[in-house]
């Protein structure tokens, strides 16, 4: 379904940087035509893809760091918007990773993975044996 | 399963995770809740299979917390316990006849039935009520109370042509029953601006072939007041859902002008609440027991108006409408106004009012706003209440495991030895598996589940389906133990 020359070592690539939840940046080569979900998985980046790219979930939610790059992407369709509405931590430049396809126009793309609330410390924590 | 995954990825070889599951099969609502025609949503089981296959993970299926094993048994054996057993009850409408009338079911029973949930089949059998299937064959009109995504699933499964389901993992019995239902009436107490359904599922239902859509009361979707408009402004999904409803109503009006009449009908009624379920004989107890030859349900509705400001609009009786509305000859009534978590073990703190385990970021508390219970956590619907989808549960599990790791780094988990001294339990040195074996619990292991899984796929393959689920628990347990499955007879 996705892309041509998927496993072709001579395929043209673009640079993509994933910013993981702990802030780590990983720069990878993304073959033209592949989705960011596929690229993440090939590079061991922890991006969930529960429905395997079939637009039935929102787990591959990514945030495009640069607004200009976001604008260079084809607009999300209704199905993607519906799923994005259910995504955690939606931003103005959110997309589903399975719908962002590597293309020359977005060379240098930087994506960050949304994080769950990290407010783990509870004020006045008094551990009491139960 | 996501909590397990986060634990494995953080701790590496320093952790083992025992998954204790009430059902004989893993994956909860992905198996028994997600509708059969939503195969892509079920793809997540491929991911879960991978987590379960990990050597650090053990599976103890057919083990119910609270009856087969107590929380105190687990507390003595594990540094931390994560409760993730979901919300098993369903909310009531609070209307006479709801509990007693044959033909009135919780959506959960119906969903479990078409999904081949063994537990659900057993429960329905035990109540002596008509099988849901008989009600569907009986046909004509079904009522669904509620306007959430579960209600949409129910309506869609009733209206969809059986041929469309033949290649899904729908339960064989449900497929065989087919559907005689020609008309589904969905009823919500509030308006389109407050409905909980999400636009994608709504569009899917509204675009079923051969189904004409009618929206009531007339003018409601177009004529929203200021507070409703604010509710819509606050939420893109609600705006889009309203657009979808308006468009479907307009399409029907256009289709009515042609001779091309669909064969089935979906009616969406806003601003209506049930006041009574009776048998057509007028007896609210519904006796004698219903059979396909005896009368169906009469549903009485009252009209509602909305009160209060945007964000917290309430339905109150509309005094300007004197006459109640009566729906005659309803063969099936489904209550789909929300699930509710229930307490499964007396030692688990519980917030009865909200149907959740009281917690802060997944750390279980002794009561709402109470003290932290060391080493006890909650994730999923029993933590947050029964809303949200797979993606929501992913983030929810991440938060809970984050709290657990945070506590562990500060030495705030329970020490197993500390627990041993406290419990004074001679059996505490025994593993969970050994304890369950001694109690005579028929545990389904990973290998057992693999056998069930393979047999279901094989039987399904012969019928052109992804799988054919076992709905009989005893049969499933025999297959798990390695007895001949039907597939290899």
TrEMBL record, chain A:
UniProt xrefs under Pfam families: Fer2
Keyword Phosphoprotein in annotation: no
An example Gene Ontology biological process: P450-containing electron transport chain
GO cellular component: mitochondrion
GO molecular function terms listed in the Swiss-Prot or TrEMBL record: 2 iron, 2 sulfur cluster binding; electron transfer activity; metal ion binding
Coiled-coil positions: none
Record keywords: 2Fe-2S, Electron transport, Iron, Iron-sulfur, Metal-binding, Transport
Cofactor(s) essential for the protein: [2Fe-2S] cluster
Annotated 2Fe-2S ferredoxin-type domain residues: 14-117
InterPro entries xref list: 2Fe-2S_ferredoxin-like_sf, 2Fe-2S_ferredoxin-type, Adrenodoxin-like, Adrenodoxin_Fe-S_BS, Beta-grasp_dom_sf
Family: Belongs to the adrenodoxin/putidaredoxin family.
Protein name per its UniProtKB record: 2Fe-2S ferredoxin
TrEMBL record, chain B:
Binding site for NADP(+): 189-190, 201, 388
Record carries keyword NADP: yes
Disordered: annotated segments: 218-244, 274-296
GO cellular component: mitochondrion
Entry EC no(s): 1.18.1.6
InterPro entries documented for this protein: FAD/NAD-bd_sf, Ferredox_Rdtase, Ferredox_Rdtase_adrenod
Assigned keywords, A-Z: FAD, Flavoprotein, Mitochondrion, NADP, Oxidoreductase
Keyword check for Cytoplasm: no
Reaction equation(s) it catalyzes: 2 reduced [adrenodoxin] + NADP(+) + H(+) = 2 oxidized [adrenodoxin] + NADPH
GO terms for MF: oxidoreductase activity
Cofactor: FAD
Binding, FAD: 21, 29, 65, 381, 388-390
Compartmental location: Mitochondrion
UniProt family annotation: Belongs to the ferredoxin--NADP reductase type 1 family.
Protein name: NADPH:adrenodoxin oxidoreductase, mitochondrial
């Amino acid at each position: 379904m996705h892309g041509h020359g998927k496993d072709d070592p001579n395929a043209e690539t673009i640079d993509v940087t994933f910013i993981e939840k702990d802030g780590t940046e990983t720069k990878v080569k993304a073959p033209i035509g592949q989705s960011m979900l596929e690229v993440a998985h090939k590079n061991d980046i922890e991006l969930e893809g529960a429905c395997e790219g079939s637009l039935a979930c929102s787990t591959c939610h990514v945030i495009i760091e640069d607004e200009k790059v976001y604008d260079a992407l084809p607009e999300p369709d209704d199905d993607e918007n519906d799923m994005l509405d259910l995504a955690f931590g939606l931003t103005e430049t959110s997309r589903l990773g399975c719908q962002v396809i590597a293309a020359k126009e977005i060379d240098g793309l930087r994506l960050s993975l949304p994080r769950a609330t990290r407010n783990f410390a509870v004020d006045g924590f008094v551990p009491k044996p139960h | 399963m996501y909590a397990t995954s986060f634990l494995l990825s953080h701790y590496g070889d320093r952790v083992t995770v025992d998954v204790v599951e009430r059902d004989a099969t893993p994956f909860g609502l992905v198996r028994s809740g997600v509708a059969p025609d939503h195969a892509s949503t079920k793809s997540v089981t491929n991911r879960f299979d991978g987590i379960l296959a990990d050597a650090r993970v053990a599976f103890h299926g057919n083990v119910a917390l609270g009856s087969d094993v107590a929380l105190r048994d687990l507390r003595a054996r594990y540094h931390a316990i994560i409760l993730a057993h979901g919300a098993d009850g369903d909310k009531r409408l609070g209307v006479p006849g709801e509990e007693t009338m044959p033909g009135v079911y919780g959506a959960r029973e119906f969903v479990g039935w078409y999904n081949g949930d063994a537990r659900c089949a057993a429960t329905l059998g035990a109540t002596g009520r008509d099988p849901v299937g008989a009600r569907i064959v009986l046909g004509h009109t079904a009522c669904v109370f509620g306007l959430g995504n579960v209600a949409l699933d129910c309506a869609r499964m009733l209206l969809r042509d059986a041929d469309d389901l033949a290649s899904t993992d729908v339960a064989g019995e449900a497929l065989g029953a087919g559907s005689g239902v020609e008309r589904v009436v969905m009823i919500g107490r509030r308006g389109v601006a407050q409905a909980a359904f999400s636009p994608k599922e709504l569009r899917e239902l509204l675009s079923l072939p051969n189904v004409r859509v009618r929206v009531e009361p007339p003018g409601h979707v177009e004529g929203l007041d200021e507070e409703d408009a604010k509710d819509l402004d606050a939420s893109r999904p609600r705006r889009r859902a309203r657009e979808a409803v308006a468009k479907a109503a307009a399409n029907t009006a256009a289709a009515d002008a042609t001779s091309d009449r669909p064969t089935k009908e979906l009616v969406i009624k806003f601003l209506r609440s049930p006041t009574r379920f009776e048998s057509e004989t007028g007896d609210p107890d519904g006796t004698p027991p219903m059979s396909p030859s005896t009368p169906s349900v009469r549903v009485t509705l009252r009209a509602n108006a909305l009160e209060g400001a945007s964000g917290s609009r309430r339905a109150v009786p509309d005094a300007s409408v004197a006459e109640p509305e009566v729906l005659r000859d309803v063969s099936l009534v489904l209550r789909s106004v929300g699930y509710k978590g229930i307490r499964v073990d007396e030692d688990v703190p519980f917030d009865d009012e909200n149907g959740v385990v009281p917690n802060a970021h997944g750390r279980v508390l002794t009561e709402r706003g109470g003290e932290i219970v060391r080493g006890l956590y909650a994730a999923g619907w029993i933590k947050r209440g029964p809303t949200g989808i797979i993606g929501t549960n992913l983030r929810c599990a991440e938060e809970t495991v984050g709290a657990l790791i945070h506590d562990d780094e500060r030495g705030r988990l329970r020490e197993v030895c500390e627990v041993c001294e406290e419990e004074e339990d001679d059996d505490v040195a025994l593993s969970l598996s050994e304890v369950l074996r001694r109690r005579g619990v028929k545990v389904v292991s990973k290998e057992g589940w693999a056998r069930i899984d393979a047999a279901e796929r094989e039987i399904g393959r012969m019928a052109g389906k992804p799988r054919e689920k076992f709905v009989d628990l005893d049969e499933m347990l025999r297959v798990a133990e390695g007895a001949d499955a039907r597939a290899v007879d």
